[in-house]
């Protein structure tokens, strides 16, 4: 149905730019690369055997947080994309609840699954040391804190949550490629939920200043190159059968739906989640080939978020997609 | 001794640039501004009365973490300065231990006092929920976690630690000015320990794109203006009697000491702490009018840091400075 039918669905993929991006990107290091690949291989093997009721398990890669673009090789300054990682973290919880195994590709330091409703510094804000030198949780936070710790541990322990951190755009795209290649074998049971805020622009490594840029004299001019679009190559080459959802964030509502629609067609996504910076915690619009669906958080329940109905819709559509492929 | 003797010690201060920076900076908001000023006033009042042994209390403003420079008014992208905030957080602990009251002006999300030796996500990495649904700390982390929670609470409870968060360069410099003006009354008992990584360049608010910059076509050129240097105005006008230490971070050792020395003279600092990106956790060089002092962490003790001997040296010099002024 939604699967691709050969390369005619795609605009021309800028293979030369993509090759040059990866060739010039600083390496993750042999040891780190081997470790990530092994963790992925084990995770996919464990989660690709049929579950107890005989149906194939599903695996989703959730990306979360913003990527950085270094301005210097020995990096002191960088360009960053604003993202708390809240959407990715909360969505991960709902995917786990729906029975998915989740590869959580997240920006170091951003919001973690099960922690999205806790204070910024839970250790300092939620705990006390009693006179008997025991650590206690404030009554007001007790249920949430216990839930966060035990649900997180349980997901890790049963092998259904793999967390992989990134910081730079170079790390993000290299690791995303490893994940996609390892999830390829899952066919339509694989999903990509690309909620990370990925830089559109970067400074190519070889044209980057080696040392900290000096502020001695006058203004600073920076020229940024476009990051080659990786979504088409993810869809066409890395994991062609996977169900793919990308995100579009704009601050200008006038161009948001147009841009989301363009992304749907240009990158051959199955769904594009359009969100506007100011209202993104209240509602999103899911753009599909068959029309747009507005998802709002349940205003009648305090604490209800937009991720719960969003993930529910996506899981339903993923089920339909899997059926259509078998 | 080290106090300034009139304006001849300073290069010409760019008052017009500074005025234009503050005039065009987005406001913190009336409510936020009032709250910060009240907290500061109460904190300084509480900590400026003589202590039990009759000596005047000392107050240090420790700045920590990097400032961001928004590239768009409805900010999605920004330039950031790399800084974990570890140095500021660890130094705050030693200043508190030495009897100082500390105003901790920190970048939201960076390292907090008493947490500098804990894992990144202490909640998820240090705790477990037992079968009786009690929260317990792993044995390996127990002492550090208890220490962090109780020492932090104690410092807040006895009123000797005031934490003020910032994100952007605009917030940082506005709040720093409030702090300096409120600490002015402390004379030589005030200290500024300016460990934050402050942007040298910014996009003036009025010339900033309103909406998210579009990636439609070709490379992106950004012109950044220089942030006017605020150190001379802090020294000359905001808090002229305060003891001032600034930090200089470079990746190129060849220019580090020269730049630190220049900062000492140009901004009339009492000390400049020179650190090189790669070795900054092992050693720093403290540049003063009377020569340079190399401070190394105690290699014979695992877990010893460079901040302990650094703060010890600075406290000694501050004592000498106070004596010289009375």
UniProtKB/TrEMBL annotation, chains A, B:
The keyword Ligase applies. InterPro entries: CoaB-like_sf (IPR035929), DNA/pantothenate-metab_flavo_C (IPR007085). Pathway: Cofactor biosynthesis; coenzyme A biosynthesis; CoA from (R)-pantothenate: step 2/5. GO terms for biological process: coenzyme A biosynthetic process. Pfam families: DFP. GO terms for molecular function: phosphopantothenate--cysteine ligase activity. Residues 58-106, 188-297 form the DNA/pantothenate metabolism flavoprotein C-terminal domain. It comes from the Eukaryota. Keywords: Coenzyme A biosynthesis, Ligase. PANTHER family: CORNICHON-RELATED (PTHR12290). Belongs to the PPC synthetase family. This is Phosphopantothenate--cysteine ligase 2. The gene is LOC105165946.
């Amino acid at each position: 149905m939604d699967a691709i039918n050969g390369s005619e669905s795609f605009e021309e993929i800028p293979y030369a730019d993509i090759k040059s991006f990866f060739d010039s990107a600083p390496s993750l290091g042999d040891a780190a690369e081997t470790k990530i690949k092994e963790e992925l291989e084990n995770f996919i093997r464990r989660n690709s055997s049929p579950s107890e009721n005989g149906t194939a398990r599903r695996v989703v890669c959730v990306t979360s947080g913003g990527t950085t673009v270094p301005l210097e090789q020995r990096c002191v300054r960088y360009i960053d994309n604003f993202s708390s990682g809240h959407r990715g973290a909360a969505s991960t919880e709902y995917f786990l609840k729906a029975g998915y195994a989740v590869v959580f590709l997240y920006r170091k330091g951003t919001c973690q699954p099960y922690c999205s409703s806790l204070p910024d510094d839970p250790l300092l804000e939620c705990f006390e040391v009693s006179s008997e030198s025991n650590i206690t949780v404030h009554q007001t936070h007790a249920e949430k804190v216990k839930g966060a710790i035990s649900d997180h541990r349980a997901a890790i322990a049963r092998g259904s949550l793999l967390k992989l951190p990134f910081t730079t755009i170079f790390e993000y795209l290299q690791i995303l490629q490893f994940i996609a290649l390892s999830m390829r074998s899952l066919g339509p049971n694989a999903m990509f939920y690309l909620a990370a805020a990925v830089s559109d622009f970067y400074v190519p490594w070889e044209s980057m200043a080696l040392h900290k840029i000096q502020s001695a004299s006058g203004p600073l001019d920076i020229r940024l190159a476009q990051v080659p679009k990786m979504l088409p190559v993810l869809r066409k080459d890395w994991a062609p059968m996977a169900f793919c959802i990308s995100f579009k964030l704009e601050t200008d509502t006038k161009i948001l739906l147009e841009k989301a629609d363009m992304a749907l067609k240009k990158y051959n996504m199955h769904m594009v989640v359009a969100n506007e910076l100011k209202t993104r915690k209240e509602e999103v619009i899911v753009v599909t080939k068959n029309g747009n669906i507005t998802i709002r958080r349940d205003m009648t329940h305090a604490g209800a978020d937009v991720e719960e109905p969003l993930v529910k819709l996506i899981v339903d559509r993923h089920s339909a997609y899997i059926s259509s492929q078998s």
